[in-house]
Structure formats: C-alpha cells, structure tokens
Amino acid sequence: MDATEQLVKKIKGFGTSADAIKIQANLRDVSSAKHIVDATVQVFVSIVHNLANNAGEGDIGSFTKTFYVNVRAAYIMTEKIAPYFPKIGGRIINVGSIAGREGLPQQSLYNASNLRLKVSQGAGLAS
C-alpha cells in the first residue's frame, strides 16, 4: 500500500461522511483533467463544492513542463469542474509555493510559474 492509498484509508476511517478516492493522472496532459473530474463525479455526486489545485513541477530546464503543471493545469481543472459547481457557492483554492512571493535562487521558471498562479487567483482565475 503506497502513501496515497494509506491516506485514502485514513480518511475513510473518519466516519460515514468521510470518503476519498485515489486518482492517478499526469497534469501535463489536458485529458487528465477530464479524467479526474469524471472519476470524482462518478464516485461522489454530481455537485462539487470545492476544488484544490495543488500540483507542482520544478523542472528548472523545461518551461513547458513547469508552466503546464503549475499554471495551465489549474486553469484546465477549473474549466472542467465548473459545470459541477452549485450556482451559488463553491470554492477554488490554488496552492502555490512561497517561491511566487519571495523567489528561490536559481529557480526562475518555478518562481515565475508560482507568481503567475498567485496573480491569476487575484485576478479571478475561477470567475
């Protein structure tokens, strides 16, 4: 049992209202967002109240990999899950590194991608 499966088991152990599933996906691939949303809606319900975008890529040699995972994936996940949000309410939480605020030495791509996610959230990424 890997760490994710252990976490799912722990969450399910909290009681009848607690549930979790493990979904493996590569957020560099656009179709993964649809796969994640479809699996979530199939197991749980047709209305989703929260989305937490918490993926991170720190490949300092690849602009595409870093921005696809750290920025583009948040946009795509938001777009795919939006139809399942209630008409009023729901939350989208975009989690980024402190690198978006303070920057890390020799990590300019990673810093920029985290800053972009922070700026996007402030500008209404989910609106």
From TrEMBL:
InterPro entries for the chain: NAD(P)-bd_dom_sf, SDR_fam
Coiled-coil segments: none
Pfam family, one: adh_short
PANTHER family assigned to the protein according to its UniProt record, in alphabetical order: EG:BACR7A4.14 PROTEIN-RELATED (PTHR43975:SF2), ZGC:101858 (PTHR43975)
Protein name: Short chain dehydrogenase
Organism: Schizosaccharomyces cryophilus (strain OY26 / ATCC MYA-4695 / CBS 11777 / NBRC 106824 / NRRL Y48691) (Fission yeast)
